[in-house]
Design a protein that fits this description.
Length: about 100
Amino acid sequence: MIVSCYVGLSCTAKNACHVLIQALDNRGIYPRQSMPDVRIEFTVNAFGELCEARGIVHERIPTDTPNMNAYIEALKGILESECYSRHEWISFRDVYEDMAA
């Protein structure tokens, strides 16, 4: 189940933080401690700080190892077969509206 997502031309730490917060809120998962006063717009380490504040272990996988990230690879395949190959969009706004629905 996708509990939150971001659709955009680029993805910043601020975007990742907002998606994580939205996903946790959508699942009713709340922080163990209060959110630190992080200026997400100006902090490169904002996502890591948010994970730490929420008690989340942020794991990274080595590059070129899709087998270690099966859920994301499956999602990409589903999006390709169920969405991208079936639609033709004129503008990015059209894509965003379809994906956000």
